[in-house]
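Progress note, project year one: complex with 1,3-dihydroxyacetonephosphate.
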Amino acid sequence: MTGIRPLVAGNWKMNGLGSSLSELESLRARLETAPVPETNIMVCPPATLLSRAREAIKDSTIMLGAQDCNPLASGAHTGDISAEMLADAGATSVIVGHSERRHDHHESDALVHAKALAAYRAGMMAIICIGETEAQYREGKTLDVLRGQLEGSVPEGARAANTVVAYEPVWAIGTGLTPTPPEVAQVHGLIRSVLGQMLGDSEAGAMRLLYGGSVKPSNAANLLFVPDVNGALVGGASLKAEDFYEILSVYAGTQS
Ligand code: 13P
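Model obtained:
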């Protein structure tokens, strides 16, 4: 192993009602009977469930994350939620720059950068997402696109302790398609080297790089043991405790 503690985070996206908290309770019970040591486990439910989720996972090893934040701390921004509000509701991390937000809300790298700074300001970890579209992948532009997103989205103050970078190829999200393990290894190697140029080798070397996009129980072991992959950002398969546990349990017994 690399010495980096892996992180497996579940992004519930716009899914989940009060009744879904039973999945958190099942996950918690599962982890109490069969813990997966030295692995960080996080659930990112919609903002409406954060406070209730905090209660459901209280005193467990499960961490709580949010899915987005406004870059400002407060003000006249109807419908938006600041990083401070998310922290107040119990989140210790926030996903920023998810491709669905980049697409649905036309979020730019500059905005994602500002959101990551907002996460730091509120004392939270930023999970910064990057990823190429299918057209960019087909045109062989993946590495250039990712370099641009990293340079535009990752703040200078990013450190291994406050930042996680998630590589999520847009064409792999919710499609059942994934890059091959050698492709993931190449991309994650590039991400680490670009981060090294930006932040210095020691921070970049310790930073967790997650893979996301159609991670399932059936492919988790193939994708998560690729060099430079330090965990996963899981969408659909995180909604069911059983599937999510199966994914994260690939790390059971692997730590020294
Ligand atoms: P899926 O696991 O459903 O493909 O979603 C991945 C994702 O976007 C996680 O943020």
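The chain has one domain: 7-252.
The radius of gyration is 17 Å.
No further modelling is planned for this target in the current period.
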